[in-house]
Amino acid sequence: MSDRTETTDGTGRERGADASSSARGTETDPLLRIEDVRKSYGDEEVLRGIDLEIDRGDVEVLVGPSGSGKSTLLRCLNRLTEVDSGHIYLGDTEITASDADPNAVRQQIGMVFQDINLFAHLTARKNITLGLRKVRGLSKNEARQRADSELDRVGLADQADSYPAQLSGGQKQRVGIARALAMDPEVMLFDEPTSALDPELSNEVLEVMQGLVAEGMTMVVVTHEMRFARGGADEITFLAEGEIVERGPPERLFENPERERTKRFFESIRHE
Amino acid sequence: MEGIVALTELSTALPAGQLLPVSEEQVGQYLGEDWEFVYRNSDYLLWGTVVTILLTLTSILLGFLAGFPAGAIEAYGSGYSRAIVRKFGVLLRGTPILVIMIFTFFVLPIDIVLGAAEIGLRSIEFVLGPTPFTVPTDVPEAFIAATIALGFRSAAYQSQIFRGALGSIDEGQMEAARSIGMSRLEAIRHVIVPQAMRRSVPGFQNEFTIVLKDTSIAFAIGLGELLKRSHDLFTQQTTAVLEVILFISLIYFVLTFGTNRTLDYVSNRFAIPGESS
Questions:
Q1: Chain B contact set for A120 (CB, 8 A)
Q2: Is the ipTM of this complex over 0.90?
Q3: Closest partner residue to B186 among A134, A162, A183, by Cβ?
């Protein structure tokens, strides 16, 4: 387990060194690169040519009205939804390539779901060990240790033996995050992680997410939680009708959007 | 009624530890000659019960071995395989069990069946290595025919139980499993099936009871199960028909009741904590 952590840290440091040696902030080496991604369901074009680059360690928040394609875009990033055309790269590898193994891609990209989707028949700990055992091939003991440390990371060390039905919504979602983190992903995707939860329960999930931001995890987050977007995001991308309308750092997008469409959206949210 | 009370008194009055404390004459004396007749032949009926139980188990097992994959194919399979399995299911569910059994007994050549079973077992051994099983050759043909009829009919129904249970598992479970890098097959095996099996217990309970009771249809092909043996008896002493039928009804009831209780226990034992079942 410690070996694994070191390797990831190692590559992380290497990359960091590269970035700082070549003038920092030029965005020459984004971790996720999305090029002209298109997707239709029947006659309905859900994504109409999305281009986006996300740097390592950045937090990208996708916002937009429902039906804008933000969730579809997120699901394209780990191939739960297949793109019709366009390319997505993780580092140097194209994950949308026809010969790319989606199972290998998904191990590097963690996902947290709106409906949480914990494995209902397994305890919190086993929700985490299942992937470690079957996918990563860890031994029972290694997997158990790793799971317990991930549960500790999301503040649920004492709930390791609880079943999903015995946990609150917020606790469940934290286990969901721990499950994804345990696979050591390079990127974490969050698909409206708090929209199924009471505001009270949302907070504990948002705190865990803020913790990940502080750790420097690369995150792509679809959310309606403007507090999180304001506090945690490096960039906010506003989508509407399958296109990126505007992108920028939170302060600018909130206070001073360039497009009328963006302005209307943030105003409508504020009134809620 | 008086007779039964007297019988209880009689048996409690006897010294404990003595096996079969009631003699035939005593039964006859208190309950009448027809009950005495049942009592005298109870071991004959109990052997019939053993055949009934064995036939139930072999049929349920065959039904599971064929029905579970069939259900999985109906839930996840693609075009061709699914269409074939469906047609078979519709055919089997649309044919009376008596007709199926007459077919398997009088039409289906037993040698071909045994040969197919032999090939099946060999191919399983080829994949999994040696197994302790052999294809039975000294089993009565009627038993094999009845097992095939009840087994495949049950498979057609069990496949629907499993298809429904597999389909009832939320799609998010599959997505979550895929999102951590599991293949579709791994996800089905480790995430979907364990949950679906729990959900199929009530349907399976029902199916088990139906197969158990339908073993009596093997009467038609002369297999010496419970009903056939009771028929043997009451044709000997026709006045005892009520007593014989009551007696075997009690046996069937005890068997179905016991099975249901056992499966209730299994269901509770494997229930997911915190979920209402």
A1: 173, 195, 272, 275
A2: no
A3: A134
